């Protein structure tokens, strides 16, 4: 099962053109035979498919597909390719799982992610995805309209000025200067810039510019900018809880001059851990990588969750996404228009803001 799940196009595995043709339902011209002279060129191009989805998405898909594989193995079903009826049975089993902490069933979003993983690995292997079967689609439509299922769906509440002040007061109680400086910079930058936790983790020192009255942060990549187009966030110093001074203080006290902006610290919080960045990482496909000394998105999530709990904000309702949600809601409260908010958060469709905007008092 693991061998199948890890089957993907990389430097050591070529795209099977014939299988892709079947999967796409299309017919392409094929040479009778290809010369060995183009093999390296073909491998080089094929290796780029490693980046077709993010490393985090790949990890989530791998985890979900393993769960599906274990179910198929338990019932002696074929995993890849899978029968649509096996997928439907899997949905039936998953939708009844109860989270012991919340007492609720898995959300529709979780089940949709499971299906997305099944679809991804089928297409990778050149098979038509069973998730596209009409009966599977009908089951999922019915599931989304079932009002009787108690699920773990909930919206993270926005962190706004009042909650942000509580978090910063909690951080100020830290005795370690480095920890205090780093965590205040994370919280304030995450809030003012409306960053996702993965975006915060990817910010490098050379992405940050201190101007006369604002902090300018470049985003190399984001969820809505997978192609690496130029994207900047202008964060005015005049806004309440501006991140400019906290980010500048973090850089001064940590003496970081290059590489990732937010670093991991020693257990006592007295010094930075050794920083190492490999030229090419394969962490997302399970291979050992040599990257160390900087925070990942999950680390930032844990930091924010920790301070929410210490400040008396329930971690059930507040999390890393609360900073981004709070940025949108607070700017709306400050009478900023949709275009201004979208420029801050990177949203490309104003309809996406409806989920975040809350009624004003």
From TrEMBL:
Keywords: DNA integration, DNA recombination, DNA-binding. InterPro entries: DNA_brk_join_enz, Integrase-like_cat_sf, Integrase_catalytic, Integrase_recombinase_N, Tyrosine_recombinase_XerCD. Residues 154-361 form the Tyr recombinase domain. PANTHER family: PHAGE INTEGRASE-RELATED, TYROSINE RECOMBINASE XERD. This is Tyrosine-type recombinase/integrase. It comes from Shewanella eurypsychrophilus.
């Amino acid at each position: 099962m693991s061998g199948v799940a890890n089957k993907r196009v990389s430097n050591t595995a070529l795209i099977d053109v014939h299988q892709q043709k079947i999967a796409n339902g299309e017919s392409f011209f094929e040479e009778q035979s290809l010369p060995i002279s183009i093999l390296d060129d073909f491998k080089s191009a094929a290796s780029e498919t490693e980046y077709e989805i993010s490393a985090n998405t790949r990890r989530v898909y791998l985890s979900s597909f393993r769960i599906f594989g274990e179910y198929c193995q338990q019932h002696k079903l074929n995993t890849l390719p899978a029968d649509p009826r096996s997928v439907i049975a899997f949905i039936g089993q998953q939708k009844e799982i109860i989270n012991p902490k919340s007492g609720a069933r898995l959300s529709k979003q979780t089940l949709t992610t499971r299906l997305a993983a099944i679809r991804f690995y089928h297409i990778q292997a050149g098979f038509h995805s069973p998730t596209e079967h009409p009966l599977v689609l009908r089951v999922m439509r019915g599931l989304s309209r079932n009002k009787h299922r108690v699920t773990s769906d909930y919206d993270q509440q926005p962190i706004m000025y009042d909650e942000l002040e509580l978090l910063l007061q909690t951080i100020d109680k830290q005795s370690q200067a480095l920890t205090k400086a780093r965590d205040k910079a994370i919280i304030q930058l995450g809030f003012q810039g409306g960053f996702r936790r993965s975006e915060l983790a990817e910010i490098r020192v050379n992405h940050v510019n201190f101007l006369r009255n604002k902090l300018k942060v470049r985003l190399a990549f984001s969820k809505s900018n997978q192609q690496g187009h130029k994207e900047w966030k202008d964060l005015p110093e005049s806004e309440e809880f501006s991140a400019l001074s906290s980010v500048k203080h973090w850089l001064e006290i940590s003496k970081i001059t290059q590489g990732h902006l937010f670093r991991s610290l020693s257990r006592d919080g007295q010094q930075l851990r050794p920083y190492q960045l490999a030229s090419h990482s394969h962490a997302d496909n399970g291979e050992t990588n040599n990257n160390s000394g900087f925070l990942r998105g999950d680390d930032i999530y844990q930091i924010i969750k920790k301070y929410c709990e210490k400040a008396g904000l329930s971690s059930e309702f507040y999390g890393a996404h609360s900073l981004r949600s709070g940025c949108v809601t607070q700017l709306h409260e400050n009478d900023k228009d949709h275009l201004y908010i979208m420029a801050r958060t990177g949203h490309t469709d104003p309809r996406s803001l409806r989920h975040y905007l809350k009624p004003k008092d």
